[in-house]
Design brief:
- The chain is of the alpha+beta class and about 150 residues long.
- A hairpin with a 2-residue loop joins strand 1 and strand 2.
Protein backbone atom coordinates (compact mmCIF):
# COMPACT_ATOMS: atom_id res chain seq x y z
CA UNK A 1 0.00 0.00 0.00
CA UNK A 2 1.11 3.56 -0.68
CA UNK A 3 1.53 5.88 2.30
CA UNK A 4 2.24 9.57 1.67
CA UNK A 5 2.74 12.10 4.44
CA UNK A 6 2.64 15.78 3.56
CA UNK A 7 3.24 18.79 5.77
CA UNK A 8 2.83 22.43 4.79
CA UNK A 9 3.11 21.89 1.04
CA UNK A 10 5.89 19.28 1.08
CA UNK A 11 5.86 15.50 0.84
CA UNK A 12 7.96 14.46 3.83
CA UNK A 13 7.48 10.72 3.36
CA UNK A 14 6.31 8.51 0.50
CA UNK A 15 6.65 4.78 0.97
CA UNK A 16 5.18 1.46 -0.01
CA UNK A 17 4.10 -0.43 3.09
CA UNK A 18 3.06 -4.04 3.51
CA UNK A 19 -0.37 -4.94 4.74
CA UNK A 20 -4.07 -4.90 4.05
CA UNK A 21 -5.31 -1.41 3.10
CA UNK A 22 -7.89 -1.26 5.90
CA UNK A 23 -5.25 -2.22 8.47
CA UNK A 24 -2.73 0.28 7.08
CA UNK A 25 -5.37 3.05 7.28
CA UNK A 26 -6.13 2.17 10.91
CA UNK A 27 -2.42 2.00 11.81
CA UNK A 28 -1.65 5.38 10.20
CA UNK A 29 -4.74 6.90 11.85
CA UNK A 30 -3.39 5.78 15.25
CA UNK A 31 0.02 7.27 14.44
CA UNK A 32 -1.61 10.54 13.41
CA UNK A 33 -3.86 10.52 16.47
CA UNK A 34 -0.79 10.40 18.70
CA UNK A 35 0.41 13.66 17.11
CA UNK A 36 -3.02 15.30 17.04
CA UNK A 37 -3.81 18.16 19.42
CA UNK A 38 -7.57 18.16 20.11
CA UNK A 39 -7.36 21.70 21.46
CA UNK A 40 -6.23 23.18 18.15
CA UNK A 41 -7.34 20.88 15.33
CA UNK A 42 -9.98 18.53 13.96
CA UNK A 43 -9.12 14.89 13.31
CA UNK A 44 -10.61 13.73 10.02
CA UNK A 45 -10.44 10.48 8.05
CA UNK A 46 -12.02 10.69 4.60
CA UNK A 47 -12.47 7.96 1.98
CA UNK A 48 -12.72 8.95 -1.66
CA UNK A 49 -13.31 6.50 -4.51
CA UNK A 50 -11.25 7.11 -7.64
CA UNK A 51 -11.34 5.71 -11.15
CA UNK A 52 -8.36 5.12 -13.38
CA UNK A 53 -8.13 3.93 -16.97
CA UNK A 54 -5.37 1.40 -17.62
CA UNK A 55 -4.19 0.01 -20.96
CA UNK A 56 -4.94 -3.62 -21.78
CA UNK A 57 -3.68 -6.21 -21.25
CA UNK A 58 -3.27 -5.81 -17.50
CA UNK A 59 -0.28 -7.27 -15.72
CA UNK A 60 -1.24 -10.18 -13.44
CA UNK A 61 -0.04 -8.29 -10.33
CA UNK A 62 -2.48 -5.43 -11.10
CA UNK A 63 -5.35 -7.91 -11.47
CA UNK A 64 -4.35 -9.51 -8.16
CA UNK A 65 -4.15 -6.11 -6.44
CA UNK A 66 -7.71 -5.22 -7.38
CA UNK A 67 -8.97 -8.70 -6.55
CA UNK A 68 -7.37 -8.37 -3.08
CA UNK A 69 -9.14 -5.02 -2.51
CA UNK A 70 -12.46 -6.86 -2.53
CA UNK A 71 -15.41 -4.51 -2.00
CA UNK A 72 -13.06 -1.49 -1.71
CA UNK A 73 -12.06 -1.62 -5.37
CA UNK A 74 -12.94 -3.10 -8.66
CA UNK A 75 -12.02 -3.71 -12.26
CA UNK A 76 -14.17 -3.24 -15.30
CA UNK A 77 -13.43 -2.70 -18.94
CA UNK A 78 -14.42 -0.81 -22.00
CA UNK A 79 -13.66 -2.04 -25.50
CA UNK A 80 -10.00 -1.08 -25.33
CA UNK A 81 -9.21 -0.15 -21.71
CA UNK A 82 -9.52 -1.43 -18.17
CA UNK A 83 -11.32 0.80 -15.69
CA UNK A 84 -10.01 0.42 -12.15
CA UNK A 85 -11.85 1.73 -9.08
CA UNK A 86 -9.86 2.21 -5.87
CA UNK A 87 -10.10 4.12 -2.59
CA UNK A 88 -7.89 6.98 -1.44
CA UNK A 89 -7.95 7.82 2.26
CA UNK A 90 -6.98 11.22 3.63
CA UNK A 91 -6.13 11.51 7.32
CA UNK A 92 -5.97 15.15 8.39
CA UNK A 93 -4.60 15.72 11.87
CA UNK A 94 -3.28 19.27 11.96
CA UNK A 95 -5.66 21.75 10.41
CA UNK A 96 -7.12 25.14 11.15
CA UNK A 97 -10.15 27.21 10.23
CA UNK A 98 -8.51 30.49 9.16
CA UNK A 99 -11.75 32.31 8.37
CA UNK A 100 -15.40 31.53 7.70
CA UNK A 101 -14.61 30.21 4.21
CA UNK A 102 -10.94 29.20 4.50
CA UNK A 103 -9.77 25.90 5.96
CA UNK A 104 -6.11 24.87 5.92
CA UNK A 105 -4.76 21.36 6.37
CA UNK A 106 -1.15 21.43 7.53
CA UNK A 107 -0.44 17.72 8.07
CA UNK A 108 -2.03 14.76 6.32
CA UNK A 109 -1.53 11.16 5.33
CA UNK A 110 -2.77 10.08 1.92
CA UNK A 111 -3.20 6.31 1.66
CA UNK A 112 -4.07 4.20 -1.37
CA UNK A 113 -3.24 0.90 -3.01
CA UNK A 114 0.10 1.08 -4.80
CA UNK A 115 -0.78 0.81 -8.50
CA UNK A 116 2.21 2.29 -10.33
CA UNK A 117 4.67 5.20 -10.21
CA UNK A 118 2.40 7.46 -12.30
CA UNK A 119 -0.42 7.16 -9.76
CA UNK A 120 2.09 7.64 -6.94
CA UNK A 121 3.35 10.87 -8.52
CA UNK A 122 -0.22 12.16 -8.95
CA UNK A 123 -1.09 11.39 -5.33
CA UNK A 124 2.12 13.02 -4.07
CA UNK A 125 1.22 16.19 -6.02
CA UNK A 126 -2.28 16.05 -4.55
CA UNK A 127 -0.90 15.71 -1.01
CA UNK A 128 1.35 18.73 -1.60
CA UNK A 129 -1.59 20.73 -2.92
CA UNK A 130 -3.86 19.80 -0.01
CA UNK A 131 -1.30 21.05 2.51
CA UNK A 132 -0.40 24.25 0.66
CA UNK A 133 -2.06 27.34 2.11
CA UNK A 134 -3.91 29.16 -0.63
CA UNK A 135 -5.61 32.50 -1.04
CA UNK A 136 -9.33 32.50 -1.68
CA UNK A 137 -10.57 32.42 -5.30
CA UNK A 138 -10.30 35.68 -7.23
CA UNK A 139 -13.38 37.87 -7.14
CA UNK A 140 -14.60 36.65 -3.76
CA UNK A 141 -12.92 39.28 -1.61
CA UNK A 142 -14.30 42.79 -1.70
CA UNK A 143 -12.26 45.94 -1.65
CA UNK A 144 -8.62 45.69 -2.68
CA UNK A 145 -9.05 45.46 -6.47
CA UNK A 146 -5.55 43.98 -6.99
CA UNK A 147 -6.80 42.00 -10.02
CA UNK A 148 -7.62 45.21 -11.90
CA UNK A 149 -3.98 46.34 -12.15
CA UNK A 150 -2.40 45.85 -15.53
CA UNK A 151 1.18 45.00 -15.84
Amino acid sequence: MLSIRAERGKVVQSEIVDGDLKEVVKRKALEAMNEWDPATSDFIVLKDDRELELPLPLKPEIVDLFRDLGELGGLGRTKDKAVARFPVYTISFENHMVSEDKYVEYKIYLLAPYINEDVRTELEAEAQDITTEKEGPEGIEEGEGEEEKEG
